[in-house]
């Protein structure tokens, strides 16, 4: 599947805890060939032997000249998780990519709905930041719907709250599936957003969904139940 994509090297720079069990990892690219990717694409890290793990690029292409950022949900004893957490500054890594077709299409409607859970925010963060730096956000209404289990697993909340305050994104909704913390958060799954939204509004939009397979499946079903054409829905499932 990846045989047409060349193996590249990068240097691990730094990691940072973003939320409970979720970290960002920054890499710089060595070598003379430019690293060119589209917002929404992923890289495949060579872990050891035949073990490889895919991670979506979380940084915007226009802000990532020969560098990139990943966001990983760290699973105890997971092969990719253990590898990433063990990286030392300056260490070389091998990867394949960029790969994948998830991303912003050429023809976009007015309303763009980004629906994601957990580390599924990674490719969506890249897309939204790209819309911001290229000023293309001005042509759209951007809606971000983020879901996770508990309050301590919310990602990049300050960044997106600021974008909303600045009028760059038009709506920002967070759904917590296991945390009834009162206040600004919604309780439940991100599918609730779709179920509670006006179908006329939804039918006019483009959708970008990212998360685990079950989440992607249930959001797609909820959208189709609202009469959204499947050609308007793009998604990446993390397996
Ligand atoms: C195209 C693509 C893009 C992806 N992008 C990202 C990304 O940006 N960020 C990211 O974090 N992941 C991403 N993934 C998923 C990633 O590739 C790994 O599959 C995932 O991080 C688990 O890897 P691991 O090697 O640490 O655990 P593994 O060694 O694969 O799994 C260890 C064990 O944990 C179980 N497990 C799996 N998920 C969970 C969970 N959530 N909680 C508890 N147990 C679990 C597994 O069933 C397995 O038994 C992407 C996947 C694909 C296909």
TrEMBL record:
Species this chain originates from: candidate division WWE3 bacterium RIFCSPLOWO2_01_FULL_39_13
InterPro entries in the cross-refs: Cbr1-like_FAD-bd_dom, FAD-bd_FR_type, Flavoprot_Pyr_Nucl_cyt_Rdtase, FNR_nucleotide-bd, MRET, OxRdtase_FAD/NAD-bd, Riboflavin_synthase-like_b-brl
The FAD-binding FR-type domain, residue ranges: 5-105
GO molecular function: oxidoreductase activity
Protein name: FAD-binding FR-type domain-containing protein
Taxonomic superkingdom: Bacteria
């Amino acid at each position: 599947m990846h045989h047409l994509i060349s193996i590249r090297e990068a240097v691990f720079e730094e990691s940072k805890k973003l939320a409970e069990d979720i970290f960002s990892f920054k890499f710089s690219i060595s070598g003379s060939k430019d690293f060119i990717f589209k917002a929404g694409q992923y890289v495949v890290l060579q872990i050891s032997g035949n073990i490889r793990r895919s991670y979506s690029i979380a940084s915007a292409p226009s802000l990532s000249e020969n560098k990139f950022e990943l966001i990983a949900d760290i699973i105890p004893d997971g092969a990719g998780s253990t590898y990433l957490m063990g990286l030392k500054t300056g260490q070389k890594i091998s990867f394949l990519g960029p790969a994948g077709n998830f991303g912003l299409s050429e023809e976009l409607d007015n309303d763009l709905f980004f629906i994601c859970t957990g580390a599924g925010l990674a490719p969506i963060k890249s897309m939204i930041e790209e819309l911001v730096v290229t000023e293309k956000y001005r042509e759209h209404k951007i809606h971000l719907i983020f879901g996770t289990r508990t309050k301590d697993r919310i990602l990049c909340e300050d960044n997106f709250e600021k974008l909303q305050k600045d009028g760059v994104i038009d709506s920002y909704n967070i759904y917590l599936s296991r945390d009834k913390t009162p206040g600004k958060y919604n309780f439940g799954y991100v599918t609730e957003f779709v179920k509670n939204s006006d179908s006329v509004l939804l039918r006019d939009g483009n959708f970008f969904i990212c998360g685990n397979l079950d989440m992607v499946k249930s959001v797609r079903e909820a959208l189709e139940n609202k009469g959204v054409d499947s050609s308007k829905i793009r998604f990446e499932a993390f397996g």
